[in-house]
Amino acid sequence: MTAVLDVAVYSDTTAEESVDGVEGFNFRALSAGITPEDRRRIREELLHRVHPTWAHDHDELDHPPTCALLRRDGRTYLARGRSTGLTLSGRQGNLVTQVLVADDGDAFGKYHPAQLYAAPEWTLEATPSGDLDPWPAPTSVRADFEADALEAMLRDDPWAVRVLPHYLTMLDAAAREAPQRLVLVHRDLDVVMRWIAAGALLLEPERAANLTFRALVDDPLRTDAAVVGLSPEFELEPVVGANVIDLERRTTSDIEPSTGSRARVAAFLDGAHAGGRPAFDLAARWEPTVGAELAARAASALHGAIPASEPWRLAVELVDALDSAGARNELVVPAQPVLAAIDTWLPATAEEIRTARETRDRVRAIGATGVADALDRVAGAGLERLVTTLSAELEAHDRGAELAVVNGTWDWLAEEPEAETVHPWLEAAVIGQLPREQRADALAGVQLEIRTWPIVIGRPILPRDNLLVAAWLRHQGIDARLAAIVRNGVAALRGGQGGSDASYDELLDAALHAPYFGTDFPDEELADLVLEYAAVHERIHGARARVADRANKTLKPLLADLRAWGPAVAPHLGSCLIDAVDARAVEYVAEEAGPWASDGVRHALRSRFTSEPKSDVALHALRLAGGSPAPIADGARKFLTEDVKSSTLTRLRGEWERPERDRLDALLRSAGPDRRRGRSGRFGKAKGA
């Protein structure tokens, strides 16, 4: 009887297409030989895995595909899977996995399961549903997975030949009863599977029959497969406890090849040098000056059968080594693959551009014009692309790009004439890199482009950043985006959200006088608000100027302003109530203002405590707390009992006369347990940091 391979297909499916009538992730199609135990193993161990954060920065359809070989209880499972985008319900993370199942190793025919990765019968693109016919043993695979092509891949690549004894030693260890894991690193699943298939063909048959593998994954610890393919497109952690061959960077773990592996490789390569193999010719050309190891790696990357994702790295490493060795002729008349690899490079970071330029300058000095010109071209193209991308991100207010500018990542571009489109943001970063409390004053002495405000201000939080935003508005100007932020803050203020803050007055006045481009103010609603507030601003400053009047007529008009502008007006009203000499006006306005007066006095005392002698402010607050009218006394009490640390009051109290000390003690005792007497002082624990 002809051996067959049973088939299962798993994906997101409707109830009608599901084999058991249940919608969601389920089996879409099965052949008759798939058992319930097979289905359990497929669900638990063989499904394509979608990395949870892949879609954050990538197209879902570009997710690395997978291939896995599992052996359990006499059954062999070969699975392939890929990401397919959105589920039927519109969520991310859809997938399809197709699995071949056999209970007889001969069911795979003349091929090792790794070669069947390239069998033509796979249907991952158009997934079937319903009942499936089992596969007969495949009679062909893709040409590059046939045995002769796999052998040629190894024989014709000098680096592969160099590491082949190490690779077979690692495969032997991976095929043991207690396997030592082997990790192959490459972003192309085809490359990883060709290496697994080629290695299996070179192993002793009984060892090859014990191999299990899974590729491509992000973490080798998430599988118990003996051979693991790891994709560098994932954010990889360092691999520990495993042998590693990096097929992209052409590096291997430090392992001593076994005698048996050396013998098998020698037999495999016997007679291989008869034909023309250009990669070996390159390796032989470079070996006398840069050594066998680098010569093999470079020749492999630049002219071998195994694709390198970044061949320029080895090209630059080779150029550096040739230069250091004084091999001038090799650089003046370079091998064409070296120039071709350099031409594929598009430097994407400051370090890469610097490397290209420094290498260019060194080789130009010895007359290697061709290599120097190639490096000059890629450095220029890389800088142009980098600047274009960064400029677009900054114009779009991409926060990551803005933070990179503020953090100094792109400071070096200030010296690059070709980067003039991002220079305005770099100029703003000179201010943005100052401590936040110093930026407002620094803005008075510079002229920056209005659109660069996020570099200096960041994402403003009002009222915390009122004064910084006001300084920008006054000295640099306003655009539509910043106007919208100010408008939203002012609208929240008028809606009763947030607490009182004296700096709203400065912010609104600065917005009124801010320069802008064009004939119209960039935000009509904000324009109406600041024009309305302009009269309030005049009344506030009029009241401040008349606090010495014995018949003060400037306080009462502020009462009407509290209704619409309370959080902005109250701190200034509180300051006027503290200083005004017209006791009758103070009493009337304070009683009418009520909580606004209390809140305003408290804020005014807070402000003075940071700018005037603290002992004088605290004594003044103590006197206000014991007097009238009640709203003023209430604000002063809250300032002393809730805003000033006990440790600070303890120090200030020591400077006072006995009557003031006693009055403070009485006030603090009445304030509650937080201010009661403690062990080390006249009264309790320090409050706050």
TrEMBL record:
Q: Where is the composition biased (Basic residues)?
A: 676-689
Using the UniProt annotation, give all residue ranges assigned to the region (Disordered): 667-689
Q: Name one Pfam family in it.
A: GAP1-M
Q: Where is the GTPase-associated protein 1 N-terminal domain?
A: 14-137
Per the database entry, which stretches of residues form a coiled coil? Answer: none
Sequence ranges assigned to domain GTPase-associated protein 1 middle in this UniProt record: 152-242
InterPro entries of this UniProt entry?
GAP1-M, GAP1-N2
**Name of the molecule in the record:** Uncharacterized protein
Give the organism, scientific name: Nocardioides silvaticus
